Amino acid sequence: MVPVATFRHITIGQYIPGESLLHRLDPRTKILVTLLLVVGLFFIDTYLGYGLAALYIALAIFRSGIPPRFLFRGLRPVIIIILLTFMLNSFMTEGEILWQWGFLTLTKEGLSKGGMLAIRLILLIVGTSILTLTTSPLALTDGLESLLRPGKRIGIPAHELAMMMTIALRFIPTLLEETEKIMKAQMARGADFESGNLLQRARSLLPLLVPLFVSAFRRADELAVAMEARCYRGGEGRTKLKQLAFHTADFLVLAGSGCFVLWLALTM
Amino acid sequence: MSIEIRGLTHTYNPGTPLARTAIKDINLTIEDGETLAIIGHTGSGKSTLVQHLNGLLKPTSGTIKVDGVDINQKGVDLRSIRWKVGLVFQYPEHQLFEETVWDDVAFGPRNMGLSDEEVRSRVERALAAVDIDMALAERSPFELSGGEKRRVAIAGVLAMEPSVLVLDEPTAGLDPRGRQDMLGQIQRLQAERHLTVVFVSHNMAEVATLADRLVVMERGEIVMEGPPKTIFAQGDKLGAIGLGVPEMTALMAKLREKGWDVPDSVLTVEEAEEAIMAVLRREARVGTGGDL
């Protein structure tokens, strides 16, 4: 039978509440540092550089108090992509031949390049998950909205984007829960979601998808009415209950991490 | 068909910071042919418990035996258990998906691999059992009223003709009329088909009229168990865990406070009437009149 609980293990946008320094930082600080790190990782091209970046990320994980297990779990779904990247680069790069078998040639340069790309991918994923694991979805979109606000003049609908993100994030767990519930209800009627050929399996998803869509539309409708009933009229003139504010720690982290990542990107 | 639950514990997300033990060390025997009600607060573990009865959830520890068979043993076909123990979820109308009412109800029987003829007769029986007119059978289930949708969804489980029917809050969100109809249908089914019925409820009055036996849950554990009269006589204890008693039981308690000699085991309006009349008749005989 289908291990129904699998849906609970999806870590997208999962937030683990805590009181660590990382949890308390202003979301804008975390978004900016993460952004810098992501861009910076693409400029690093020595193993020493990646080692230092990994050390920096390890320090962040340590300070966040999040069990490293959680971060590695987030890697599980992309492990095939990482392996594929490594293999393709190792075998497709020209250079000093280390090993040859038929049309496959493993080169020294390829191995080095593949390894680096794999490390880059892992660091990218782990680095960005620290952001979502330590920042509540609400704080995240608040930070994003605040950072995007200057873009309003060139037509970026900062508030609307943030609101859409908030709502989408808010409904991921709800919809997963709903999926699980409907799946169970259909299984209680003897539905079988995993045997049969591709066509049969696709057909067996109908009893799941139809109610799921119906309920998603119903929820969207109810939410729209509820928002209008509370006089929601977009971001114009809207004030916030929780004002974002930079503290000393934010400036220190921004300056310190900024300098470090820039130095890594430019020299390594 | 009886169900035997021994030492049942279930932990959600075990081994993570989000781990939560929903039920712990539940021991319960559901007797063949009885109507058992499970009451308790939101989050007391009622829904988690009932989802173990047909193997939708696997116990973290403990066993569930349906008709003497441990359903979580290797080699047990869980689908066949689900046909014997029909589970109706909360708001079952959210699971409707077919183009017509008829097809939706037929989903379960078809999964059982029954012949067309058998499927047809089962669908007809199931729709009749929940008072859905055959004229509605060709309509889309999404066109029906809320109460009708609920009944169609229940028919979808009944069509599998289970020996045990488990309902998670079958009357939630229905109007008083719909509630009455639903309870009447459950009662009738129970009598006609000799079903074992397990239902979860928040409504003390409906529990009082329907159930042979009550199980009270609190924080994942069974804290009280017994016939409705015995349980509701302990209004204080129920109150302490945030549950009430049926209105008539509460009324009798108020009257007793005022010195009326009425029993504490009254559950329904009819019983209340009888109890009050008995007191009045006694007082008329004595001729004191009493202070009404």
Could you characterize the architecture of this molecule?
The complex is a heterodimer of chains A (268) and B (292). Chain A is mainly α and 268 residues long. In chain A, 68% of the residues lie in helices and 3% in strands. Chain A has a two-stranded antiparallel sheet. The longest helix of chain A has 31 residues, at 158-188. Chain A is flat. The model of chain B has no long low-confidence stretch (mean pLDDT 88). Chain B has helices at 46-50, 78-84, 101-111, 116-129, 146-158, 176-193, 204-210, 228-232, 235-240, 247-257, 269-286; strands at residues 3-12, 20-30, 35-40, 61-66, 69-70, 85-88, 164-168, 196-201, 213-218, 221-226. Chain B contains eleven helices and ten strands. In chain B, a hairpin with a 2-residue loop joins strand 9 and strand 10. The radius of gyration of chain B is 22 Å and the shape is globular. Chain B has a six-stranded mixed sheet. Chain B has a four-stranded antiparallel sheet with strand order 2-1-4-5. Classes of the chains: A mainly alpha (268), B alpha/beta (292).
Tell me the helix content of chain B: 25-40%
Overall morphology of chain B = globular
Task: Give me the Rg of chain B, rounded.
Answer: 22 Å
Question: In which order are the strands of the major sheet of chain A placed?
Answer: 1-2
Number of helices of chain B: 11
The end-to-end distance of chain A, rounded to whole angstroms, is 51 Å
**What portion of residues of chain A is helical?**
55-70%
Q: What is the N-to-C order of secondary-structure elements of chain B (H for helix, E for strand)?
A: EEEHEEHEHHHEHEHEEHHHH
Lay out the secondary structure:
The complex is a heterodimer of chains A (268) and B (292).
Chain A lengths: L20 H4 L2 H17 L3 H18 L3 H8 L3 H14 L4 E5 L2 E4 H27 L2 H12 L9 H31 L9 H7 L1 H24 L18 H20 L1
Antiparallel strand pairs in A: 1-2
Helix pairs in contact in A: 2-6, 2-7, 2-11, 3-6, 4-6, 5-6, 7-8, 8-10
Chain B lengths: L2 E10 L7 E11 L4 E6 L5 H5 L10 E6 L2 E2 L7 H7 E4 L12 H11 L4 H14 L16 H13 L5 E5 L7 H18 L2 E6 L2 H7 L2 E6 L2 E6 L1 H5 L2 H6 L6 H11 L11 H18 L6
Parallel strand pairs in B: 3-8, 3-9, 6-7, 7-8
Antiparallel strand pairs in B: 1-2, 1-4, 4-5, 9-10
